[in-house]
Amino acid sequence: IPPWWTSHIRNDERTTIEVDATVTSSRLGRSAGLSRSHGIETDLIGAFNSEETRPVNADSPLTDDPVLYVNETRSEWGAVSESETPIEMEFDLYNPNLEPYVVTRLGYTIAMNGVELGKGETRDEHVIGPYSTETVPLTTTIRNERLDEWWVTHLDEGTYGHQVSELRIEFHAIVELPTGEELTVPLEELTYEETVTTDIFDEG
């Protein structure tokens, strides 16, 4: 599955399935060749691109909510390799407060059908001044060796349905307050979910 996945992403999420079969009849003493071609397309991350403004709430007595706003999100596939599939993401964060806020870390978890495909944190600090907007980049990475385990669930009708997957990306931020204290803020408003369906053998 990982080699196919790599080619699928590199080909703009398009795959051509080619089936060549031979049917042989010993009674008739003859064989016949059959071939079929079928294309599939997916769009795993396209809907992540959004200009919707969403508040980021800390739900903490140490600060008033919202601590930040996310004004826009963008994503595109990075340079996929045999071992990993990066997704390059950007968040436009706006600080509505009188004091600057510092995002010290931004983390993520990627799963499909409950199978964890990758997780990590960036450690680049981003200072967001009062009433200012800062673009914060984040590279999320799918570990390709985990794709075989996901594929079993994709074909299992008892999971979400035959050839159906639920992609889920969760985010969190470590925010340093003007007092110097740090808060771990789950970015629930940014949780990305996408349903992916395929029809590999054109079963209908």
Describe the main β-sheet briefly: 6 strands, antiparallel
Share in β-strands: over 45%
Structural category is mainly beta
Shape: elongated
What integer value in Å does the Rg equal?
A: 22 Å
Mean residue pLDDT: 92
Order of helices and strands: HEEEEEEEEEHEEE
Write down how many β-strands occur, each being a DSSP E stretch of 2 or more residues.
12
Count of alpha and pi helical runs: 2
Low-confidence stretches: none
Distance between the termini: 22 Å
Share of helix among residues?
Answer: under 10%
Task: Describe, in plain words, how this protein is organized in 3D.
By secondary structure, the chain is mostly beta strands. 9% of the residues lie in helices and 52% in strands. The strands form three sheets. Strands 6, 7, 8, 10, 11 and 12 form a six-stranded antiparallel beta sheet that branches. The radius of gyration is 22 Å and the shape is elongated.
Strand and helix layout:
Layout: H1 2-10, E1 14-25, E2 30-41, E3 54-56, E4 68-77, E5 84-94, E6 101-112, E7 115-122, E8 126-128, E9 133-143, H2 147-155, E10 164-176, E11 182-186, E12 192-197
Antiparallel strand pairs: 1-2, 3-4, 4-5, 5-9, 6-7, 6-8, 6-10, 10-11, 10-12
Index terms:
204 residues; mainly beta; 6-stranded antiparallel β-sheet; 4-stranded antiparallel β-sheet; 2 helices
Entry summary:
The chain has 204 residues and is mainly beta. The protein is built from 2 helices and 12 strands; from the N terminus they run αβββββββββαβββ. Strand 4 (68-77) and strand 5 (84-94) form a beta hairpin.
